[in-house]
Amino acid sequence: MKLYGYFRSSTSYRLRIALELKGIEYENIPVNLLESEQKGEGFTSRNPFGSVPMLEGGGRDRAQSMALIEWLDEAYTERPLLPADLEDRYTARELAYAIATELHAPLNLPVLKYLRDPLGHSQEEVGVWYRHWLSRTLDPVEARLAQLGTGDFLFERPGFFEVVLLPQVYNAQRFDFDFSDKPHITRIERACLALPEFQRAHPDNQIDSPEYNGEAPR
Amino acid sequence: MKLYGYFRSSTSYRLRIALELKGIEYENIPVNLLESEQKGEGFTSRNPFGSVPMLEGGGRDRAQSMALIEWLDEAYTERPLLPADLEDRYTARELAYAIATELHAPLNLPVLKYLRDPLGHSQEEVGVWYRHWLSRTLDPVEARLAQLGTGDFLFERPGFFEVVLLPQVYNAQRFDFDFSDKPHITRIERACLALPEFQRAHPDNQIDSPEYNGEAPR
User: Which residue stretches, if any, does this entry annotate as coiled coil (chains A, B) (predicted)?
Assistant: First the structure.
């Protein structure tokens, strides 16, 4: 498989974690979002959404990260990301889709750019916007985790929820979001980052990252 | 089952269509978003997201519309919303999740309110914002439908994609979005609205709608 992505794109990061957790080999092909490579015709003819990640594999180019993750888990049944039990599946999806549907888009690069131009907002106002929407979804995610009595992961091992959570936390840290009142999210993040799958998927360990030190496994 | 929703909420509308298409009986309980009923403690103690729809059923309160729809389709296997074939499932989810993850949140009421206050934008600027994000996702959705050679529905009968598409189109029409260059979306919308399941789910036919004429079946 070939994963077209960008080291810092949170949806690309989701896919890297999902592929790593499932043990699926892939080639990482950087797409430079800052130079709008994803909007070039060579790219949009394959993916009309003009977005990363795009996964080439199984005879097809696929473009939407959540649809991709659901497909991966159905097509490659070993090391499932979603638990087997129906109620647990709902729980994992509730928390993952809260982040993916409510929170991701208002924080995504195109929206932040639009706030600056044409709407004319300052970087400080954009930061306030960013942290406002983070609280609005991560507060109830934390509350649900507390209700559920979560340990190091939502279930026994990291899966569907952690695939979506970790990239959002990474993103939030770049905007100085305060996680001190979120012990469950913080504990899960630490437990994930201790695992080699999450380390290999981390933005800093991608070849298009300025942090890349040449030692990452891909 | 009890569906807590608001007639005009597009995520509540998704759930009504899903329940109707699956033939699942439910009681519709209006929650007045304009009076912030969903933020009252009686509600948030059951649903920390303070959002509609909330579905009470199967011994649990469930809160996130996409997780709910995935759960409904797994728990009630008759009249599936997702097709059986893995590739078709990816296709349905790609288009549905494009709308649910990229498009829904920037158009949702809390974001539109925030643009007016504290950001101070006019109703006209909010309208430009709204139509900008609509184009950005509905243009590639239309392009994918053209690539796929779609008929009256994405597949033989309406399902997962139409559940998400119809509420977004209804919403867009309220903001005078121009669909004249979107023949595929327009044709699918018309074919859906000709069906009794979509008519019963329509916002105008809910008891909390000012359009309600007392003749809707619930």
Answer: none
Domain that holds residue B12: 2-79
CATH number of domain containing B17 = 3.40.30.10
Residues of B in contact with A105 (CB under 8 A): 101-106
Give the pLDDT confidence of A112-159 residue by residue, as tens digits.
Answer: 999 999 999 999 999 999 999 999 999 999 999 999 999 999 999 999
In this complex, the residue of A62, A93, A105 whose CB is nearest that of residue B101 is A105
**Distances from the Cα of A35 to the Cαs of A31, A40, A51, B58, in angstroms?**
9, 10, 13, 49
Residue B217 lies in a domain: no
Query: Do residue A119 and residue B121 have CB atoms under 8 angstroms apart?
Result: yes
- Cα A84 to Cα B185: distance, rounded to the nearest angstrom: 35
Give yes or no: residues A109 and A153 share one domain: yes
Q: Provide the angle, in degrees to the nearest 10, between the axes of the packed helices A160-174 and A65-75.
A: 150
Q: Which pLDDT tens digit goes with each residue over B166-182?
A: 999 999 999 999 999 99
Q: Are residues B72 and B102 in the same domain?
A: no
- Is the complex ipTM higher than 0.85? yes
